[in-house]
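User: For a benchmark we're assembling, each entry needs the component sequences followed by a predicted structure for the full assembly. Here are entry 17's components. Please fill in the structure.
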Amino acid sequence: NAGVMQNPRHLVRRRGQEARLRCSPMKGHSHVYWYRQLPEEGLKFMVYLQKENIIDESGMPKERFSAEFPKEGPSILRIQQVVRGDSAAYFCASSPTGTGRTDTQYFGPGTRLTVL
Amino acid sequence: DAKTTQPNSMESNEEEPVHLPCNHSTISGTDYIHWYRQLPSQGPEYVIHGLTSNVNNRMASLAIAEDRKSSTLILHRATLRDAAVYYCILLNAGGTSYGKLTFGQGTILTVHP
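Assistant: Structure for entry 17:
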């Protein structure tokens, strides 16, 4: 049973370009979370999605960031017009349900975004 | 979300037990105590969770104080591969927090050979 997969593992973009980060949850998991870890800082929640629905995007920056989890295919975190401050590690996690009480979240290896 | 307090860092020797404390004095009756860890350059990894009773699994043990205002993660025999940042996180059983994890600064565990 493959774990959570993220690609690319490393992504380099120039300022103003778009970054697309992909996350394939574990088999059977329909709940996806995205977290961001800025250099020398802790992990911060960004968004929680179920298939075709955004449930909680309270941690997403108001502009340039969007996320989706279509019926088919991976979850995508999109960052438009990247700036140097977007340089960070972006982690995706999945869980079988979204109850939170006892649900374990399984994390992927992360995508390390560098903006030049 | 209720707040947790952990020491910034701890050190241990290989093969010795490690007790990682966490204070959560404002915990509510429906908050579960979860522990995750993050090894260098990796994503976080679930370790253990509990509500009221002490819990054991293959990775660690979780000791929860009777008043639930504190808990301790116990690694029975530390190995070099246990060197990581350990996070103590509270998850509410209800409300709108769903399963989103609120990470604090955690405890950096250093294991000496």
